[in-house]
Design brief:
heterodimer; A: six-stranded mixed beta sheet; three-stranded antiparallel beta sheet; 8 helices; about 15% strand; disordered N terminus; B: 15 helices; GTP-binding (chain B)
């Protein structure tokens, strides 16, 4: 904390009334509202600005069809943000190539506005030969980075560049109970370098608790063995506090989730769940499934962090790569063949 | 889930804000006081049902309707808040451990039949928008904590603000800066006497100080301009200032266009306090010229210095005169942003008061004075005591509130979005023009000499200028030049043609 300076002081003239005294200044802090400038009001200013501007979030869901991706999105945001891509007809239409569909919604809660975009990828992993099924997805993600980059280097930039970069990719692992499939490993390995991946075990109500724990352990081992860094990435922990929090999360991924958009009456309350003959699975009950943890991670506590990592790390990597490419391109075009930094 | 994650030790200190600060009163609608203890885990579910609660329908439209829009009524807030401030130790170390232990036991008992609250104690504490008992029941998604997440990150990072003070010596700039931020930036200053000052040129000094209050850290930089207006001949004395501001923009531009953008330091000048002398009649020519040179590069806030030498009537007259002159000479000082319609009356009145008080008539003081049993910063005269922070004596409090409490973020935003973007656009255009000229020149050289040339690469950030377009640009330039030559020739001919008439 700062102190008040002691400048040269004049001797008070002898005609000074006794009531006034000039004293040596005393150190500031803690002396009533003397030493309080009010800097912390900047937090309020930032809040106000943030509330006015609103937030943006782009989530991509990837997984084979039928794993409950759209249902999970609807459960997460408690509204129909994602339409189920496959209708319950006798002839199910599986698209021949991966289609990337992006749907945006403006939602508001308690005065905070958010533009939520859900990017769906029907057709992933559904073909007979699934080689390179991750390519359209990588192309899409890179295209979003490219668009942002072009906006950023424009001469007349917009005040707020619309952010369509994919902040988070939720990858759905089918609940086989054994281990990751080669497709899962391939996809996650490639994509963890360009986007934050949050793996979840879909339709976890088919696994008992022991099976679930075993499965999770196997998955974690395989991820480690293949060098796949999913969110929250170890290398991006900023300080000890973050590391502690994130370590606890890392012990729990992948989250075993159950999604539902139907309500049932349980113990006098209406809850989202799935009703079967042997009981009702409550989606928000942490004893039943880990949906609540996923939601808290994604929305309540780590949303800003996810966006931050996307913009300051993944995007920067892309940008550096593009800038270097461009420099070599210019060098080649000039016929010098020199790479200028 | 959130209880597993560390309870943020910063937050207990923030909770004390809500009692003292009147601005926080409007936060009360969105913020709830945390109930003294979290609801016990094993309690029967019946506790949480409120009769007649409206159940949200699942198939609702996502567009802004739904339970989020209704404002839940206040929960009784008195006691919980007090118990929070009592409990929160400064270290913050004990609290998290207790919480974690408590929650860990409940984690172990996973085989409970009753469904516990899926919204355990959150780390946002006092600022959690979902804290009322009613809210616990409702089906919220939970992203209203986003503003808290954003400012938690900023609190960790800290803020930076650069303030420039410009004006002649002896107007009380350093004293005012010390009073504003309660620092002692100018501790051991040596004031030069007149002879030493004759030969002095303007130079720029920068002091940085870190201030921390209630967990918020601010890196404050004060840029001073000693020597401004001191010389006998003061033409171009503002050039140094202009160059400095441009330098900061340029450095930021380079950093931003560079490859490693992780730790960019923002040294751009966010605000310039221009000190106007109270002894003249309004603005002097030097003031006008200097402000005109700077108004497109930085936010100028004019300040009427040493206002304790003026009576209230004189202050009013001078302010009006200065305002007229500012308009007359077309100086763009910093404009306060317009209020939205949904801001409350008090806020709007405050803003209006600010707008009407430009230029701020300020008095600064480094000395504490005691009078009537109170201690305050002030100036002691035989005829009375001037209190710096008294709104009746000067606009000091208004200025400080504006600079720190209400408009710091806006000043940074305007600098970033308007002044810096203007600079950047100009810079890129200049560079493109330079590059094109260089290409022209070297293309010409190449055509002449047929040797390969090293192109001086200016650090153009991804300018999409490929060879085709360059060639086209060059061709068009050549055409233009030729046409211009033809025009000149015609003009000359006309002149020659006209000459015999005389």
């Amino acid at each position: 904390m700062s102190e008040v300076a002691v400048p040269e002081m004049m001797m008070p003239p002898p005609a000074m009334p006794a009531a006034f005294q000039v004293e040596k200044p005393v150190p500031g802090p803690g002396m009533g509202d003397f030493s309080y400038v009010g800097i912390d009001a900047i937090l309020e200013q930032m809040r106000r600005k943030a509330m006015k501007q609103g937030f943006e979030l782009n989530i991509m869901v990837v997984g084979q069809s039928g794993l409950g991706k759209s249902t999970l999105m609807n459960t997460l945001f408690k509204s129909k943000v994602s339409r189920k891509s496959v209708q319950a007809t006798s002839q199910e239409k599986i698209p021949k190539t991966i289609d990337i569909k992006s749907v945006s919604h403006d939602i508001e809660e308690k005065g905070v506005r958010m533009k939520l975009t859900v990017i769906d990828t029907p057709g992933f992993g559904d073909q007979i030969n699934n080689e390179n099924c991750w390519q359209p997805i990588m192309k899409f993600i890179n295209a979003q980075y490219e668009q942002y980059l072009q906006e950023e280097i424009n001469i007349n930039r917009k005040k707020r560049i619309p952010d369509s970069r994919v902040h988070c990719c939720i990858y759905f692992i089918p609940p086989t109970g054994h281990c990751l499939r080669p497709l899962d490993v391939e996809f996650m390995r490639r994509l963890s370098k360009v986007v934050n991946i949050v793996p979840v075990i879909a339709k976890a109500d088919t696994l008992t608790l022991e099976e679930r724990d075993f499965f999770k352990q196997k998955i974690r081992e395989e991820l480690r063995a293949n060098g796949i860094d999913v969110y929250p990435q170890k290398e991006f922990d900023e300080d000890a506090e973050d590391r502690m929090i994130n370590d606890k999360i890392r012990e729990m991924i992948p989250f075993a989730v159950v999604g539902s958009d139907q309500e049932y009456q349980v113990n006098g309350r209406r809850l989202l769940g799935r009703k079967t003959k042997w009981g009702t699975i409550e989606v928000e009950n942490i004893a039943h499934c880990e949906f609540a943890y996923l939601r808290d991670l994604l929305i309540r506590t780590h949303m800003e962090n996810i966006k931050d990592i996307t913009s300051s790390i993944h995007y920067e990597v892309y940008r550096v790569r593009r800038l270097n490419e461009n420099n070599t391109a210019i060098a080649h075009a000039n016929g010098t063949g020199q790479i200028l930094s | 889930m959130i209880d597993i994650w560390l309870y943020n030790p910063l937050l207990p200190q923030l909770s004390s804000l809500s009692i003292e600060e009147p601005e926080d009163a409007e936060l009360a609608y969105t913020m709830r006081d945390l109930p003294p203890t979290p609801p016990p885990r094993g309690a029967s579910v019946d506790q949480y049902t409120t009769p007649g609660r409206h159940t949200p329908v699942v198939d609702r439209e996502p567009e802004g309707t739904g339970p989020g829009m209704r404002r839940p009524p206040h929960t009784p807030g008195g006691t919980p808040l007090l118990s929070r401030t009592k409990r929160a130790p400064l270290e913050g170390e004990f609290e998290p451990l207790q919480l974690r232990k408590f929650q860990l036991t409940s984690m172990g008992s996973r085989s409970m039949d009753s469904s516990p609250q899926s919204r355990p104690r959150s780390p946002w504490g006092h600022f959690d928008p979902y804290d009322s008992a009613e809210d616990m029941d409702r089906e919220y998604v939970g992203f209203a904590t986003l503003p808290n997440q954003v400012h938690r990150k900023s609190v960790k990072k800290g803020f930076a603000f650069t303030l420039m003070v410009a004006g002649e010596s002896g107007l009380g700039k350093s004293t005012l800066v010390n009073s504003l931020y309660l620092t002692d930036l100018y501790n051991n200053r040596k004031v030069l006497n007149a002879e030493e000052r004759i030969a002095q040129t303007v130079f720029i000094t920068k002091h940085t100080v870190g201030i921390e209050e209630k967990g918020v850290r601010l890196r404050l930089s004060i840029v001073d301009t000693p020597g401004f207006g001191d010389a006998v001949n003061n033409t171009e004395s503002w050039k140094e200032i202009e160059d400095y501001i441009d330098q900061q923009f340029e450095q930021y531009f380079r950093d931003e266009s560079g490859l490693n953008r992780k730790n960019i330091q923002d040294n751009r000048v966010h605000c310039c306090l221009y000190f106007i002398s109270p002894f003249g009649h309004g603005l002097r020519p030097l003031d006008v010229e200097c402000m005109r040179a700077l108004h497109e590069k930085v936010n100028i806030v004019p300040v009427l210095a040493k206002a304790d030498s003026l009576t209230p009537a004189e202050v009013r007259r001078k302010k009006m005169k200065i305002r007229e002159e500012i308009e007359k000479f077309g100086i763009n000082i910093y404009q306060f942003p317009d209020c939205d319609f949904d801001e409350d009356e008090e806020f709007k009145q405050q803003e209006q008061l600010l707008k009407d008080s430009i230029p701020f008539a300020v008095i600064g003081s480094n000395i504490q004075v005691e009078s009537k049993g109170r201690k305050f910063r002030g100036r002691l005269y035989p005829w009375g005591v001037v209190e710096v922070e008294d709104p009746a004596h000067s606009d000091f409090l208004l200025l400080r509130n504006m600079l720190v409490k209400t408009h710091m973020q806006d000043l940074k935003d305007v600098t970033r979005e308007t002044h810096y973007e203007n600079y950047r656009a100009q810079c890129i255009q200049n560079m493109t023009r330079m590059v094109v000229q260089e290409r022209k020149r070297s293309l010409r050289d190449r055509i002449r000499s047929e040797s390969s040339v090293d192109f001086p690469m200016t650090p153009l950030p991804l300018a999409p200028v490929d060879r085709e377009t360059e060639r086209l640009i060059w061709e068009k330039d050549e055409e233009l030049r030729r046409m211009q030559e033809v025009l000149e020739r015609i003009q000359e001919q006309m002149q020659h043609g006209q000459k015999p008439d005389y």
